[in-house]
Predict the structure.
Amino acid sequence: MIDLKNKVAYITGGTKGIGLGVAKALLAEGMRVAISGRSKESVSTAIDELKNDNVLGIVSDVALLRDELNAIEKIVDKWGQLDVVLANAGVGKFVPVDEMTDSDWHQMINTNLNGAFHSLKASVEELKKTKGYYITLASLAGTNFFAGGAGYNASKFGVVGFTQAAMLDLRKYDIKVSTIMPGSVSTHFNNNEPDDSDAWKIQPQDIGELVLGLLKMHPRTLPSKIEVRPSRPDKK
């Protein structure tokens, strides 16, 4: 997939943060990009920011398979193909396990883990046709547990395991599958408001460059699990 011009990508959770940063990087390479979010307002705001004719905005809740099936149908109806899927949508609730609500637990599992499955389930037949690329946005929390992270850890450990098994299942179709596991990223995640104090963190555009690197890599080579972290920790 070294020549990316006019290739078609779908990014879940693409209205802000990492998803929006990746969308900008792919559009700059001449790709056609569909982004999804859970609300019409968030999708419209992102489309206005991107200001590109090669963007399609879709309202989809990845926790619902029917929404993802509808999203893929819209993409293929518009562009006739699907080459790349980035399962990026995610939420986090960070509380001790004895204080975690049933609702918080299920929201993380349904969005982070079930959502990754739904995005792949909905798109896999199209990816078979194009010998495409499926990428999940996991986290270093998918291999490093921490206090207050029981639900988030469970979902991201699950995403890593799911993606690695899917990689083994799908490479016989020449579908490449990778998971990206970032550490601290400067986004609005967990109600953060990015500012100059986040300069030490990974930036969304850095993940965009990483995704482009994967897509441009020779087809014979597959970085199936990529850990990425800030070069230096915050100096507090």
